[in-house]
Amino acid sequence: MTTTTVTTAAPAPTRGWITDWRPDDPEFWAATGRRVARRNLVWSIAVEHFGFSIWLLWSAVAVSLPAAGFAFTVDQLFWLVALPNLVGAVMRIPYTAAVARFGGRNWTTVSAALLLVPLGLMVACVTNPATPYWAFAVAAATAGLGGGNFASSMANISYFYPERHKGLALGINAAGGNVGVAVVQFVVPLVVVAGAGLHLAYAPLLWLLPVLLATAGAWLCMDNLAVSRAPLRTQAAVLRDPHTWVMSFLYIGTFGSFIGYSAALPLLIKHEFPAVSGVLFAALGPLVGSAARPVGGWLSDRLGGAVVTVATFVVMAAGVVAVLASLRFDRFAPFLAAFLLLFVASGVGNGSTYRMIPAIFRGRDGAGTRAAAVIGIAAAVGALGGFLIPRGFGISLARTGSIEPALLVFLAAYAVCVAVTWSVYLRRPTAV
Q1: Cβ atoms within 10 A of the Cβ of 30, count?
Q2: CATH for 17-426?
Q3: Long-range contacts of 32-38 (CB under 8 A, 24+ apart)
Q4: pTM of the model
Q5: Is 224 helix (H, G, I), strand (E, B) or coil?
Q6: What are the mean pLDDT values of the chain's consecutive 10-residue runs (432 residues total)?
C-alpha cells in the first residue's frame, strides 16, 4: 500500500507568478499564505495611500489659489476638486481589469509610477501666475490616476486572503488608502506656508520621493497570483448580474459620500465660516472616516454586511439633518461635528458594502473572479459620488447662494439607499 504525503507548497519567489495559492486551506495559510499576504498588503496600502493623497491633492491646494493670485470663481474651484473624482471613477474600470491582465505586482508598480504625472503638472501650473484655467483643469483631471489605484488594489488583495478574513483585510487595505486624504489635507496647509510667503509647489513636491519609493517597493516586494488571471469576457460577465449594479449604487452612497465630502469640505468651511482660521479641521473628516472603515468590515464579518449597511445610511441621513440644523445656528462646532458623523458613518458603510460583495457571490462558479470584478465596477461607479457631491455644492451655491438645496438632495438619496438595501438584501433572510 502506497502512502501519499500531502505537503504545503511554498509560493514561488517574489517577482514571479505564484501558481499555487490556497488561502482557504488552513495548513497552507498558516505555513506560508499569511506571511505572503501580509507583505503584499503592506505595499498595496503604501501605493494606495499615496494614490489617495494625490487624488485629493487639489482639494487642499484649491483653497489657497485665490491667495496665490489666481482669480478663480467659487464654482471654478469646486470644478477643480470635482474633476479628479470624475476621472478617478472612469479609470477604476481599466485599473481593475489590469490586475487580471498584467498581475497585481506588475500593475501596482505601473500605477504607482503614473502618479508622477499629476505631480509634475501641478508644479507647472502653480509656479506660473499666467497659467490659464484650462491648464489647471487638465492638471486636476490627471490627479484622477490616483483614484484608479484603489480599485486595482482592492481587487488584487481580495485574492490573497481567505473568505473568513476578507472583510477585515479589505477594510484595512482601504483604510490605509483612505487616510491619505486626511494626511494631504492636514499636511498641505502647513507645507505651503513654510518659510516666507505662499509656496503651492511644495505640495506636489512633498510626495515625489514617497511615490518613487513606493514604486520601487511594489516592484521588489509584491507578487503576482496566477489565480487572479482571467480573460476580459469572464470579468465582463458580471455586467449582466443585477447585484453588480445594486452594489455599485449603494457604494455611491457610502464611498461616494466619503470622497465627495472629503473633496468639498475645505471649500465649504472657507465659504460658510470665513472667520475660522485655517482649513486643518477639514482633515478630521477623512481621518475618522478612514479609521471607521475596518470597523465596518469587522462588524460585517459578525453581523452581516447588509444589516450594517442599512444602519449606516440611517445614520448618514441623521448627519445631513444635523448639518442643516447647524447652518441655521451659524455655529462652526456643530457644523464640524455633524460632518464628522457623516464621515464615520460613510467609513463604516465603505467597509460593510465591500464585505457584502464576496458574500453575494459565495458558492458561485468563479466566485473570486466575479467578486474582484464587481469590486472594481462598484469602486468606479461609487467614485462618481466624489464628483457629484462637490458639483452639487458648487451648483447650489452658484444658483441659490446656499448649500441647503444640495444637502436636501443628499438626504433624499440616503433614504433611497435605505429602501434599496432593505428590499434587496434584508426583506428576505440571506447570508449577505
Answers
A1: 11
A2: 1.20.1250.20
A3: 32/8, 33/160, 33/162, 36/11, 36/160, 36/223, 37/160, 37/161, 37/169
A4: 0.83
A5: strand
A6: 43 65 90 92 95 94 92 93 93 87 93 97 94 96 92 87 82 86 90 83 95 96 86 74 93 94 92 79 90 88 91 97 93 95 95 86 70 81 92 94 96 97 85 67
